[in-house]
Amino acid sequence: DTGVSQDPRHKITKRGQNVTFRCDPISEHNRLYWYRQTLGQGPEFLTYFQNEAQLEKSRLLSDRFSAERPKGSFSTLEIQRTEQGDSAMYLCASSPHFNEKLFFGSGTQLSVL
Amino acid sequence: GENVEQHPSTLSVQEGDSAVIKCTYSDSASNYFPWYKQELGKRPQLIIDIRSNVGEKKDQRIAVTLNKTAKHFSLHITETQPEDSAVYFCAANSAGGTSYGKLTFGQGTILTVHP
Fold it and tell me: Is A85 helix (H, G, I), strand (E, B) or coil?
């Protein structure tokens, strides 16, 4: 499968714990996006990278959230001190240079107990 | 920032009928409008998109229309089939600057096609 891959598919954690998700974009895509989707809603933009540079962050991304893309390839999204309100599907997407077509991964479903 | 409203939230049709989903957007600078289909437990998949220099685009049974003046766009599915049943999301981009490629999504429409 040469699409966007995310790991893990599911994560259950206790409130207050830290979690980290990984995204591997389509190999020739230099743009990578993180979105969050809650039940019954459309995806909400969190942040995006062009190569290794993080170019924009949503105000939804509190100080407890951090994203990296150290070598311009895979990306990680870390949530520190998780809260129940963080429970959601975290979707990663990638797109080629100067092309706004987003290709999504299958997401990581986070449940905070 | 951009705001996208989508209607209806649910849509039920008989197989073979047409389905129409409508969206409005707020930012007149938006110039890219994709539609995504998401089946239960699966990733959103791009099914069709349109740019603001085009009024209509078709791909087999799917078409999208755009009215820039009114700031609304619609998805039309003809000859619906049970496998069209899914959640459909419209979206609009934030054009220009560092926001290139950032999308704002509508709330989604649950389409059910009854055999």
Answer: helix
> Is B14 exposed, middle or buried, given 0-12, 13-18 or 19+ CB atoms closer than 10 A?
exposed
Distance CA B55, CA B33 (A): 11
Residues of chain B with Cβ-Cβ distance to A104 below 8 Å are 36, 43-45
| Cβ-nearest to B43 among A40, A45, A107 | A107
| pLDDT above 90 coverage of chain A, percent | 80
Is the predicted pLDDT of residue A37 greater than 80, yes or no?
Answer: yes
pLDDT, tens only, B67-106:
999 999 999 999 999 999 999 999 999 765 555 678 999 9
What CA–CA distance (Å, rounded) separates B47 from B82?
16
Looking at residue A33, the DSSP 8-state letter turns out to be E
Judge whether B34 and B49 are in contact, CB under 8 Å: yes
Q: Is A26 exposed, middle or buried (0-12, 13-18, 19+ CB in 10 A)?
A: middle
User: Could you say which of B44, B93, B106 has the minimum Cβ distance to residue A104?
Assistant: B44
For chain A, how many residues are written? 113
Among the partner-chain residues B42, B44, B46, the one whose CB lies closest to the CB of A43 is: B44
Distance of residue A98 Cα from the nearest chain B Cα, in angstroms: 8
Q: What is the mean pLDDT of chain B?
A: 92
**B47 touching A, CB under 8 A?**
no
